[in-house]
Amino acid sequence: MVVLVTGASGQLGQSLQSISGNYPEIDFVFASSSDLDITDKEKVTAYFEKTQPAYCINTAAYTAVDKAESEPEKAYQVNVKGSQNLAEACAETHTVLLHISTDFVFDGEKSTPYTEEDIPNPKGVYGKTKLEGEQVIQASWSKYYIVRTSWVYSGFGNNFMKTMLRLASERDTLNVVDDQIGTPTYAVDLAEALVAIIRYDFQNDTKPYGVYNFSNEGVCSWYDFAKKIFEVNQISISVNPIPTTAYPTPAQRPKYSVLDKYKIKTTFGITINSWEKTLRHH
Q1: Known catalytic residue: 256?
Q2: Which of 8, 65, 156, 228 lies 20 to 30 angstroms, CA to CA, from 26?
């Protein structure tokens, strides 16, 4: 079974590489952006013809949330056009597409966890292009699993955890926003969930295509997350909670973006770790 992974040099792509040895029955093909530029339709078509994947996990994305506000065209090319190119190639080769989306498709005005049925209302360019990416996939091809996730971190790439650890080595005190609420997602846990979806799809006649939420379990603020990162790593540093208004950014973030995971857990029989447990053991 050939599984093509796009964006293989990003943190989720690298997390998939780190667990790929546990699944000898899967022939993973890891394509970084230099191997496969998803914004180039001809290259995508040729790559699919060459590799003939049964599944494609699209982890390629423009994820610079603030930069997207000043580079909307770049974000659009990767998040919308790239997604469309992949979906059309999947339709031609009958490849099942697993596509990663984001909590940023929501406006964050709710105070209870977002379900897959909630109406998206993105506030910034990043969220808007990710939502459009979902929509072009749905319009182009029926065999897809769109997985929305949040606050992704790992030992790979750039992420909040690594930023906090770097800043802690440079400073004695840090100010961290405490009025944005969500859930961290350990990229390796997300990678395992994606493989679980593929294995389920491969083994079962019923194909529960559609949109799913995945993050670790639990709820916290960025301030709570930072405090736990330092605690786990036994770093002594003063962390002050601040409101979003004290730390203005070009892009508006959802105030509340906790995701309801009931659908993915019951459909695929996935057990999800709490974010604190994962952070302690990763």
Answers
A1: no
A2: 156
